[in-house]
Amino acid sequence: MNSLRSTDIATATPLGHDMPAKIEVRGVRKRYDANGNVEALSGVDLTVKSGEFVCLVGPSGCGKSTVLRMIAGLHKPSEGEILVHASGARTVPTAMVFQNYNVFPWKTIQANVRFGLEMTGMASAEADKRATLWLGKMGLGDFADAYPPALSGGMLQRVAIARAMAVEPEILLMDEPFAALDAQHRRILQDELLQLWQEDRRTVVFVTHSLEEALLLGDRVVVMSARPGKIIAEIQVPFARPRSPDIRADPTFAKLEQELWSLLREQVGKHAA
Ligand SMILES: Nc1ncnc2c1ncn2[C@@H]1O[C@H](COP(=O)(O)OP(=O)(O)OP(=O)(O)O)[C@@H](O)[C@H]1O
Ligand SMILES: [Mg+2]
User: Fold this and answer.
1) What's residue 273's pLDDT?
2) Among 46, 54, 144, 182, which residue carries the largest CB count within 10 Å?
3) Does the beta carbon of 63 lie inside 6 Å of ligand 1?
4) Alpha-carbon span 120 to 164, nearest angstrom
5) What is the 3-state secondary structure (H, E, C) of the chain?
6) What is the pLDDT of residues 10-60, one digit of tens each?
7) If pLDDT is split at 50, 70 and 90, which confidence band does 193 have?
8) Distance from residue 247's CA to the centre of ligand 1 (Å)
9) CA 46 → CA 24, 28, 57, 244, distances in Å?
């Protein structure tokens, strides 16, 4: 595996090396038997530390969503194991945010966020209070009683993030959460998530096709090969926290994006062939 490090940059590693592992993916292979024996993953090893923001990039179909679904416990590995070290202090180990919002159109915004909380067994009054708090944090306080069809894509994705964050999961799993947004809204949501994350440093595994997004948000960017996916490289992102969105204009940022792209381009080419 390549391990890219920009040694010419004054590195401020954002996370202590002594943080405990939160997620351990060990020798994981995944085969889907239903669809004519698709080998999705061929031996993935990945450790995510507590409080680390890890971005997963790789060509379409390489198994990124599969990794997230297995961490969430929705699918089981065909071989190997996945350990999620929940502290026990929180009630919900993982929450997922998807590309397509997944909100209920017949429920109000408030009820959508409350729903996730009630699923954890939280009493209604407490769930309401928590939903109000997170809608406020996501700038949706005035839309609590609105219904999803009245909201833009960017606002719906804020609802989905509020719903996931409100349950205060130990691990937030985000599967291309901004991919459906236009470029301007995408950028705004990236900046908001950067800020929000820096306030409470939850463990995050974030899948994206955007190298810029990965470098802006992540402590570490992990690159996967074409299917059957495995990890071929990773880069420790050298920008200190709290980060400003202005790092997009840093020459190092462009250099790292180029390095990541040269690794990924080969893999995308393989997939297309
Ligand atoms: N439930 C399933 N049944 C059968 N095959 C599946 C299933 N889910 C995924 N696959 C296959 O496994 C492979 C990996 O899929 P996965 O969705 O994890 O990739 P991905 O990296 O998330 O792709 P994308 O970037 O397009 O979202 C693909 O070939 C896909 O068709
Ligand atoms: Mg996917």
Assistant:
1) 46
2) 54
3) yes
4) 12
5) CEEECCCCCCCCCCCCCCCCEEEEEEEEEEEECCCCCEEEEEEEEEEEECCCEEEEECCCCCCHHHHHHHHCCCCCCCEEEEEECCCCCCCCCEEEECCCCCCCCCCCHHHHHHHHHHHCCCCHHHHHHHHHHHHHHCCCHHHCCCCHHHCCHHHHHHHHHHHHHHCCCCEEEEECCCCCCCHHHHHHHHHHHHHHHHHHCCEEEEECCCHHHHHHHCCEEEEECCCCECEEEEEECCCCCCCCHHHHHCHHHHHHHHHHHHHHHHHHHHHHC
6) 333 445 567 899 999 999 999 998 766 899 999 999 999 999 999 999 999
7) very high
8) 33
9) 6, 9, 13, 27
Residue 89 has pLDDT above 80, yes or no: no
pLDDT of residue 19: 86
Taking the CB of residue 64, how many other CB atoms lie within 10 A of it? 24
Give the mean pLDDT of the chain.
90
Query: What are the tens digits of pLDDT across the range 139-188?
Result: 999 999 999 999 999 999 999 999 999 999 999 999 999 999 999 999 99
Task: Tell me, in angstroms, the distance from the centre of ligand 2 to residue 67's CA.
Answer: 9
AA identity, residue 201: R
- Closest-CA residue, ligand 1 atom 18, reads 63
